[in-house]
Amino acid sequence: MSNKNELSIATYAALKTCIANGEEQSVKELLAKQPIQALEKSYLIDLAKLNNNATIIKLLEDISVKQ
User: N or C: which end of the chain has fewer CB within 10 A?
Assistant: First the structure.
């Protein structure tokens, strides 16, 4: 079963790549203000912290967590 609010595997992979490459606008577009799982959010924030990109870290921190 698929839920429209969940990130697809392809979107999640693209999001990780954009974070690693520091592509702020692409990250913003891929997130599209949809809630994500807490574990996914934590992982993506850790990935962004590795690159020390404050803008991407802030984008990720502002995304709501799916209940």
Answer: N
CB 28 within 8 A of CB 4: no
Count structural domains, the chain. 1
pTM above 0.85, yes or no: no
In a domain, 3, yes or no: no
Q: Which tokens hold the place of 29?
A: 């577009």
> Is 2 among the domain residues?
no
Q: What is the mean pLDDT of each run of 10 residues along the chain (67 residues)?
A: 63 94 95 87 96 95 89
Confirm whether 54 is domain-assigned. Answer: yes
Whether 67 is in a domain gets the answer no
Nearest to 38 by CA among 4, 7, 1, 3: 7
CA-closest candidate to residue 31, choices 52, 50, 55: 55
